[in-house]
Write a structure and sequence with these properties.
alpha/beta, binds uridine-5'-diphosphate, 344 residues, single chain, 13 helices
Length: 344
Amino acid sequence: MKLSVVVPCFNEEASIQRLVDVLTATLSSMVDSFEVILVDDGSRDGTLDRLRTVARRDDRFRYLSFSRNFGKEAAILAGLSEATGDAVAVLDADLQHPPALLAEMLPFLDRGYDQVVAVRTRTGDPAARTLASRLYYRLVNRMVDVKFEDGVGDFRVLSRKATNSLLALREYNRFSKGLFSWIGFATATVDYENVTRETGESKWGFRTLLNYGIDGILSFNSRPLRAAIHVGLVVMVLGVLYAAWVVVDAIISGVTVSGYVTTISAVVLFGGLQMILLGIIGEYLGRIYLETKARPHYILQEVSTPVTGSGALTEEIEARSTCCQQSPNMASEKARPTISERTA
Ligand code: UDP
Ligand code: MG
């Protein structure tokens, strides 16, 4: 069996060498043959240089480099579409996804599973974050049609079938957690201990996480729009009842010009409510806008394929980036962290 390993790398200068050493050591004993596809997601440090060196030394290591930062989801997509193996593993460059765990994950493929997911325990996480993510998953699973699991990130092994199915989904907003779940297939899970990042910095702050959370809810269905209708109905019923009461009160006791407090409260409340509902609609509209532009998911500026004559690289790159343009949809422009990773 040939295994492909896809690794998104964004400013991972400090992690690359260790990653390559660990992968070489673990993979050689695990599978007959392997390839590692390192995707440089527009890094601004020396990541690309390191990748060039690595690819020169060992031809089992290949790299792709984006013209700018397109986000982890785009990097994973690029890696998956380059992968030639019978199975594809996706893991982080910072070794938070221990490659040794693949030894436990791969046997599941022989047992007929098409996806093997590594589920991280929350050891060492701040309590507040753990709580927040538990609540989030509870809420989200009530709101979306696909199932999101706590602790599940992008660390997983996909069979060729699952990889191809994933590649067939060309949408621009790639919430990969949801996509993995959406394609279905028999999925096995393997637990692993949370590993803290050893070098470099995590790229996720609170705001990124919050936005990622909102993405998770909006990417997979239109239930928030339905919820808006429900809220509207409830508010309308309350409004009609209140208006009836005001009329009756006016008939019985005449009109006294008071009610300043009620008026202001109502204006503020409904103003806020309308803004939120408009926001929800706008959010979907924005997504439709991005999807209809049908832009490629990423643009390659360099690939590790041996270059022969001059101009070959450019042709190669053009061929590859247009392959994605034919698709009706497109990919994420911003970095979209995995909440499971993050909330961790
Ligand atoms: N990453 C990427 N593009 C980005 C952000 C992150 O390719 O815009 C990669 C990063 O190099 C790493 C993985 O995604 O291999 C996970 O990122 P990070 O470790 O920052 O996230 P965390 O582990 O904290 O969730
Ligand atoms: Mg990390």
